[in-house]
Every structure is written in C-alpha cells, then in structure tokens.
Q: What sequence folds into this?
C-alpha cells in the first residue's frame, strides 16, 4: 500500500471522473508523488503544513505497478512516483487529515508508526 495526500475537493472531482491526474506539483513534475507508510508523516509536515481539508488516500500498489517507479528523493530515500494517471478505483480507502495545533496534518496511528 502507498499513500497520497490530496485536497478533498480534488479527490472528489477525480472520483466523479474516475481518474486522478495529480496536483499542480505532480503535473509540473510529470508524475504523481506518493509516499510509503514510513514516509507519509514527514511528507505531511514538509509539504502540507497549514493546508486544511485534506485526505489521506491509500492506494493498491500492485494495481499500478506497471507505471510506478521508486526513485530517490529526500535524502536519497526512494519514493513511489506514478508515471500516468491514477484510476480512483485503485484507492483502498480514504481518511480525513485534521491539522494539529502546529498546522501539520495528523496521520492516523495505524498508517505509519
């Protein structure tokens, strides 16, 4: 399972279409950024601080394996990047991400230890 933090409205629009094409950053970079479970907290703190109304979407990694590439990013760590669009049917679940007192999205305990 890999994870995408996404604005609720963008995900709702994608679900109506059946395809998530990515955020503005994803579109600019040419791939959809994902995080592994052990990376998602740092991703939330670094890239989504102060942004309200977010969702954490869990995606079936095996279902998109043909277009998924693990590439070096922060500090050389390998991150999953999807070269293509994400069929929303490959989402396993979604959970809201409230912000803590510092404005950092709170990742559910059962996702990343």
A:
């Amino acid at each position: 399972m890999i994870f995408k933090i996404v604005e609720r409205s963008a995900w709702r629009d994608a679900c109506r279409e059946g395809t998530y094409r990515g955020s503005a950053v994803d579109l600019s970079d040419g791939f959809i950024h994902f995080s592994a479970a052990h990376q998602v907290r740092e991703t939330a703190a670094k890239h989504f601080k102060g942004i309200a109304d977010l969702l954490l979407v869990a995606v079936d990694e095996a279902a998109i394996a043909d277009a998924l590439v693990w590439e070096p990013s922060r500090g050389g760590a390998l991150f999953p990047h999807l070269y293509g669009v994400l069929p929303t049917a490959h989402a396993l679940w979604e959970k809201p991400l409230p912000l803590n007192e510092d404005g950092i999205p709170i990742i559910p305990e059962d996702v990343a230890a």
